[in-house]
């Protein structure tokens, strides 16, 4: 949807702000299809606006080639194909009214992030994060990523890939699956939030590059004039930096010598030299050895003994 943005159950044209499509679960989904009881802490008791009963919980939507919408209901454990004309349900996968058969041992439960991966005349391939847990129902020992083949000619669903959490993580809400093609189907990267109050709804694998408007920053420090030099180097917003290249001089106009290449560690990298350098220029270098940008201006080393002398003179 190049010009559309999905916002809950609305499709909105970003430029004109026109609402192109509106959908309400109560018009199409029977409340008896819900797995959640009214009054549970995560669903509400329905007595007030603030505690309305979340019987459906739409958590993802994707557009198909024919214009239909593929949606996911977490609290019904069902994936739906929805008509773009009137919002009617064209078919269901999972839940208590599934139109498809699944092989034994394959089930959907409290799923998230359902995405269309490919379509052809006989069916489609989708991916999803099968949470298998919603705080009240647990249907597997751990959450897993699923890639499924939906056969429209057979009305049967087969498993293409299943990615289990190496740590046996059980996500009771949110989360997502991003597939990166390798030689086999093992999981190569998994992240989690240690803070139980934190939320991490979706993750995407993208080719992210940045071009900060600012230049790299270096702070140079020596305990005494003539002593070892310590540099604190950073570049806010730059994600391609692999190494810091340092050029330094004993005197401002005495020519700069190459000190070395130093691996970038964290947001701010601490670099030490046994030599004293009064002036410094740093250069950011990427993983291919290409220079990205330098600090341009030579930085004067701050020394504690000179600072102390200056303070005494002021007093």
UniProtKB/TrEMBL annotation:
Cross-referenced InterPro entries: Arylsulfate_ST, ASST-like
PANTHER family hit by this protein: ASST-DOMAIN-CONTAINING PROTEIN (PTHR35340:SF5), PQQ ENZYME REPEAT PROTEIN-RELATED (PTHR35340)
Official protein name in the record: ASST-domain-containing protein
Pfam family, one: Arylsulfotran_2
Source organism (scientific name): Penicillium antarcticum
């Amino acid at each position: 949807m190049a010009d559309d943005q999905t916002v809950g159950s609305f499709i909105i044209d970003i430029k004109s702000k026109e609402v192109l499509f509106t959908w309400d679960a109560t018009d199409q989904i029977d409340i008896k299809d819900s797995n959640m009881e009214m009054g549970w802490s995560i669903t509400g008791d329905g007595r007030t606006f603030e505690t309305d009963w979340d019987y459906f919980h739409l958590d993802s939507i994707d557009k198909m080639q024919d214009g239909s919408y593929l949606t996911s209901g977490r609290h019904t454990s069902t994936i739906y194909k929805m008509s773009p004309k009137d919002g009617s349900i064209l078919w269901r996968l999972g839940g208590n009214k599934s139109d498809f058969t699944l092989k034994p041992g394959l089930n959907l439960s409290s799923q998230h992030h359902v995405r269309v991966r490919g379509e052809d005349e006989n069916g489609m391939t989708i991916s999803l994060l099968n949470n298998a847990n919603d705080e009240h129902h647990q249907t597997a020992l751990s959450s897993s990523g699923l890639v499924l083949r939906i056969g429209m000619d057979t009305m049967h669903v087969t498993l293409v890939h299943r990615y289990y959490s190496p740590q046996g993580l059980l996500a009771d809400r949110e989360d997502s699956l991003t597939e990166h093609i390798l030689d086999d189907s093992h999981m190569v990267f998994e992240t989690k939030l240690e803070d139980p109050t934190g939320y991490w709804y979706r993750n995407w694998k993208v080719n992210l590059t940045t071009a900060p408007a600012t230049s790299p920053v270096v702070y140079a420090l020596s305990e005494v004039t003539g002593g070892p030099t310590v540099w604190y180097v950073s570049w806010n917003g730059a994600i391609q930096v692999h190494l810091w290249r340092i050029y330094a001089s004993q005197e401002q106009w005495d020519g700069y010598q190459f000190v070395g290449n130093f691996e970038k560690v964290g947001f701010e990298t601490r670099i030490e030299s046994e030599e004293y350098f009064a002036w410094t220029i740093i250069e950011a270098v990427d993983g291919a050895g290409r220079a990205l940008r330098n600090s341009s201006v030579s930085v004067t080393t701050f020394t504690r003994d000179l600072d102390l002398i200056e303070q005494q003179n002021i007093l």
